[in-house]
Structures are given as structure tokens and as C-alpha cells.
Design brief:
The protein has 569 residues and is of the alpha+beta class. The chain is 39% helix and 14% strand. A 3-stranded antiparallel beta sheet has the order 1-2-3. Strands 10-11-12 form a 3-stranded antiparallel beta sheet. The structure holds NI-FE active center A-form. NI-FE active center A-form (NFC) binds next to helix 3, helix 13 and helix 16.
Length: 569
């Protein structure tokens, strides 16, 4: 599309992986066309072929170090599904704790370190009055670090940073851009919380190190979890004992405190100043989907057991939540007509059990520049390393906002009440949810939900151990040579949205392996019908204040928490 002014953002930063975005602006600097491109391919699906299915989790986990462990989780679920392996109760609860811990950590880091600076003007914080900042902080939260002296200290550190000309993590922001709306005091408060969150986030992941040995890339196991439990400190070296459980318990308390007293109030404070900026809804008011997560009953991955429900909504009709069936070949399909892969017939999609990953890099005739230095991409041809997944032919948005919309539509109080409360505090209608701000707010609410659910799952684990059950793994059916030709699917909700792995096992080895990933859904290029994905849809009709400072583009893209490493895998 050559109409208007083409703006290219490459690389998009403060994300995971390699992304390029191009937009066309009309004469009023409003976005009229958007192109989302994944610029790197990983090849994990190809690497997995011929390997032992019990090792798949360890390879898949390396798809990403940000949503660490979540690929391993759905991988072991896929292999267990294929082999008909059931996991013990404790393994299910520990897996839930690992995944909830990931939600809390990932959402917190995303908000403060990858997204906040799209709303917060760091340099403006230098103009803030520390006393007024303290009053503002104390008016929204009981968090202890809120004295005038504390904020003066942060401001002095920041000033030294700016004066040295070495802004460190605050380099290259569009400081002073008119799209920033927070007063200096709110900016200073947010900078303080950016630094506090940077320090605190390392505590949360210690939960992964207790149950999974390390972070990133903790250990998992087909058939359960690899950690032994021994409260008496006898027997297995490195087993989970009372001291470690107490550490986990104390980190859970601190996480709840930080999220409820810092993260959620900050979301509300930022929402207050930006509630007129309701762009970026894209597909969220139309098509959203969740596979569901957190089975409360071991080995039951249906809505009877899932604390976060599965479902799909089409055309914004919240009165109907459709069932999602990942085994049905007509429901989930991936297309490659605009992706750098080859299919025998690219007018059709493939269900992941029959999926093909064969790279084919070529540029359309209307692209500008060279293969190694593309100046403008041709979106009428192949233009991304991301495939285009579709549910019953529809492009879908996935992620925290999709999950909250589905929970809301299902009238589940734990999702509906916090949303209604936030909207009423901000004086906004439900439609305001379908926006960039709504996506950011849903993630904050979800971080709070996840931290409290961690407490419940932890108490459940301890109660079960104290009742005499210390089993964490089921090693029956361990030998894949005895499985025959089988296929399985593992699914769940990664922090960024719906994640599925499909595996086919033959002669004890992986015959095919396909992952369809949250960012693959959201960042997908066009499909053969020309339907755009969630990122492209969300950018349309957004005005950009300064064309060569695409702050609004980053703000909306970041609200999805892009992970391009995952999307291209
Ligand atoms: Ni990487 Fe992901 C995997 C994605 O499923 N997208 O939240 C998850 O990365 O962050």
C-alpha cells in the first residue's frame, strides 16, 4: 500500500524477539493500514522431529526465556495426552504454582519495564514536587515507600542519570512527546515503581527455582514434576522441605502485596489520565479466544476443572461463548499465504496435527530495498516468519483481555467484579475495555488474581502433603516404544494468550510437532481471504501526534506484550 506516508518501525523494542511494523498515515497522521512482521525464524518444530517425545519439553522451553516454562508445560501435557499418562495431584498443583508464578512475574515485568514508558515521561519526572508526589502516592495506596524524602531521593538519582547523559534503561524514549499526559508527580511515582519492580521481580522467580531447579528454563517431567517432596529432610537430596515451602509462602505474600499495593493502583492512576485515549481495540471488541488454564482437578482440562475458562466469542456478541476444540481439524488451522513458508496448496489451512513447517523466504515485487535491507515490505505477498492461525476461519485476539472478556461473558464473579469496579472508578462504560488501555488494565487485574490464586494452590499443596501424599510423578507407561502410533494435544493459557502444542509419535520418536502460540495469533499476517490479525487491526484509525516518533504505535503494540521469539518459534 503506497497511499499516504509510510512509517517503518524496525526493530520494535521493549519486546521479546524481532519485530517490524509498517503503517500508512493519512494526511491527518491517522493510521489507515498496518503491517506486522516477524523478522526471525527459529525452527524448533523442525529440530524436534525424530527426537524422544519425553525430551520435547526441554527443547520447546527454549522457544522463549520470557514466558519461561509455559512451552514445557503444554509440551508435557501434549505428550501425556498422546501416551494416556495421568499425573498425580501434587504434580498438577505444582504445575499450577509454576504457571501462576510466571503470570505474576511476567505481567509485572511487562507493565513496568516493557510498557510503562509508553505512558510515563521519565524526563518530566524531574519537574515533579516530591511532596506532592508523596501526597499522590498516599492517596492511591497504603504502600510504605511513599514519603517526600523517598521521592526526592529517586528524583536526585534520576537527575544524576540525565545530567551524565547516560540514561541507561531510559535511553531513546520519545520524552516530551505531546502524547504523554501524566503530570510530573505521577511520572515520578511511576519511575520509582519502575525501579522497585526491577528489584522485586527477581524474588518472584525463586518459586521456579524451588520447584523447577532454576529460572529461566526450569525443569519439567512427562508424568509429573521432577521435584521430590520430603518434609522430614531425610532421603532425596534437594527435595522440597518445610524450609523451602516457607520461602515460597513468604514470596507469595510479598507478591500479593506488591501487585495489590503498587501495580494495580498504578494502572488505575494511569487510567485516570488516559481515559480519553481509547484507541487500539482492534479485534478485542469482536473475536476473542481462550483455551483455558489452571486445572483444579488433576488431568481434567475441560471447563469443569479450569479456573480460567476456555471459549471463543465472535463479532462482539458476549451472549454466546463457543466451545473450542483443539482436536477438531476444522477449528484451528494455520495458513501461510503471507508467511515465509511453503504449503502444497496455500489457499488452504492445515490443522496442526497435519502441520508443515518448510521455510521459503521471498519478497513481493512491490517491496523496496534489498533482501538484507528492506526499506518497505510488500504486504500483498509473503511478508512474515509468523504463520496465520485462524479459528473456524476467523482471526482471533488472545491474551489477558480476551480471558477477562470471556470470564465476564460467562458471568464469573472473579473476573466480572474487578472489571466492573475498575470501570466504575474510572467512570468508563464496558466498551472502554476494548482498547489498548483495556488490554493493559486486564493484565494488571489478572496479575492480582494470579497472585491470590498462588496462595490458594500453595495451601492446597501443603494440605495434601500433610495428609500423607508426597507423590509428584507417575512413571508408568514411561517407554515411548510401547506407545505405538499416537497423537496428542497439550494446551493452556500462557501469559500472552492461548498456547497449543500438537505432537505425533511413531516408533517411539516424534513424527510431527507443531506449536501455535499466543503471539502467532495476535501478530499474524493476513490470510488468503485478506483478513488481518489482532496487531494490524488494533493500529487502524489511531492518530499519531508526531509521525517520526511513533509513540502511539509502540503503546498499542506493547499492550499485547509481543513475544516474537514465541510467535516464529
Ligand atoms: Ni515468548 Fe510466549 C508463549 C508468547 O506461549 N507469545 O506468554 C507467552 O512469550 O512470551
Amino acid at each position: 500500500d503506497d497511499s499516504g506516508k509510510r512509517v517503518v518501525v524496525d526493530p520494535v523494542t521493549r519486546i521479546e524477539g524481532h519485530m517490524r511494523c509498517e503503517v500508512n498515515l493519512d494526511e491527518n497522521n491517522v493510521i489507515r493500514n498496518a503491517v506486522s512482521t516477524g523478522t526471525m525464524w527459529r525452527g524448533l518444530e523442525v529440530i524436534l522431529k525424530g527426537r524422544d517425545p519425553r525430551d520435547a519439553w526441554a527443547f520447546c522451553e527454549r522457544i522463549c526465556g520470557v514466558c519461561t516454562g509455559t512451552h514445557a508445560l503444554v509440551s508435557v501435557r501434549a505428550v501425556e495426552d498422546a501416551a494416556g499418562i495421568k499425573i498425580p495431584e501434587n504434580a498438577n498443583t505444582i504445575r499450577n504454582l509454576m504457571q501462576l508464578c510466571l503470570y505474576a512475574h511476567d505481567h509485572l515485568v511487562h507493565f513496568y519495564h516493557l510498557h510503562a514508558l509508553d505512558w510515563v515521561d521519565v524526563v518530566s519526572a524531574l519537574q515533579a514536587d516530591p511532596k506532592k508526589t508523596s501526597e499522590l502516592a498516599q492517596s492511591i495506596s497504603s504502600w510504605a515507600l511513599s514519603s517526600p524524602g523517598y521521592f526526592l531521593d529517586i528524583q536526585t538519582r534520576l537527575k544524576a542519570f540525565v545530567e551524565s547523559g547516560q540514561l541507561g534503561p531510559f535511553m531513546n524514549g520519545y520524552w516530551g512527546n505531546p502524547a504523554y499526559k501524566l503530570p510530573p508527580e505521577a511520572n515520578l511515582m511511576a519511575v520509582a515503581h519502575y525501579l522497585e519492580a526491577l528489584d522485586f521481580q527477581k524474588e518472584i522467580v525463586k518459586i521456579h527455582t524451588v520447584f523447577g531447579g532454576k529460572n529461566p528454563h526450569p525443569n519439567w517431567l512427562v508424568g509429573g514434576m521432577p521435584c521430590a517432596i520430603n518434609l522430614d529432610n531425610t532421603g532425596a537430596v534437594g527435595a522440597i522441605n518445610m524450609e523451602r515451602l516457607n520461602l515460597v509462602s513468604s514470596i507469595i505474600d510479598q507478591t500479593i502485596d506488591f501487585i495489590d499495593k503498587v501495580y494495580v493502583p498504578d494502572i488505575k492512576a494511569i487510567g485516570m489520565f488516559y481515559k480519553d485515549w481509547l484507541y487500539g481495540g482492534g479485534l478485542s471488541g469482536k473475536n476473542v479466544m481462550s483455551y483455558g488454564e489452571f486445572p483444579d482437578i488433576a488431568n481434567d482440562y475441560t471447563n469443569k476443572s479450569l479456573l480460567m475458562p476456555a471459549g471463543a466469542i465472535l463479532n462482539g456478541d458476549l451472549s454466546t461463548v463457543y466451545d473450542v476444540d483443539l482436536r477438531d481439524p476444522s477449528q484451528i488451522q494455520e495458513f501461510v499465504s503471507h508467511s515465509w513458508y511453503a504449503y502444497a496448496d496455500e489457499s488452504k489451512g492445515l490443522h496442526p496435527w497435519d502441520g508443515v513447517t518448510e521455510p521459503k523466504f521471498e519478497l513481493g515485487s512491490k517491496s523496496k530495498g534489498t533482501k538484507t535491507n528492506i526499506e518497505q515490505i510488500d504486504e500483498s505477498a509473503k511478508y512474515s516468519w509468523i504463520k496465520s492461525p485462524r479459528w473456524k476461519g476467523h482471526a482471533m485476539e488472545v491474551g489477558p483481555l480476551a480471558r477477562y472478556i470471556i470470564g465476564y461473558a460467562k458471568n464469573m464473579p472473579e473476573f466480572k467484579e474487578p472489571v466492573d469496579k475498575l470501570l466504575s472508578d474510572l467512570g468508563l462504560p464496558i466498551t472502554a475495555l476494548f482498547s489498548t488501555l483495556g488490554r493493559t488494565a486486564a493484565r494488571g487485574l489478572e496479575a492480582s488474581w494470579a497472585s491470590h490464586e498462588m496462595r490458594r494452590q500453595f495451601d492446597k499443596l501443603v494440605a495434601n502433603i500433610k495428609a500423607g501424599d508426597s507423590n509428584t510423578a507417575n512413571m508408568e507407561k514411561w517407554d515411548p516404544n510401547l506407545w505405538g502410533k499416537v497423537k496428542g494435544v497439550g494446551y493452556g493459557e500462557a501469559p500472552r494468550g492461548a498456547l497449543g502444542h500438537w505432537v505425533v509419535v511413531e516408533n517411539g520418536k516424534i513424527a510431527n510437532y507443531q506449536a501455535v502460540v499466543p503471539t502467532t495469533w495476535n501478530a499474524s499476517p493476513r490470510d488468503p481471504q485478506g483478513q488481518i490479525g489482532a496487531y494490524e487491526a488494533s493500529l487502524l484509525d489511531t492518530p499519531v501526534a508526531v509521525a517520526d516518533q511513533p509513540l502511539e504505535i509502540l503503546r498499542t503494540l506493547h499492550s499485547f506484550d509481543p513475544c516474537l521469539a514465541c510467535s516464529t518459534h
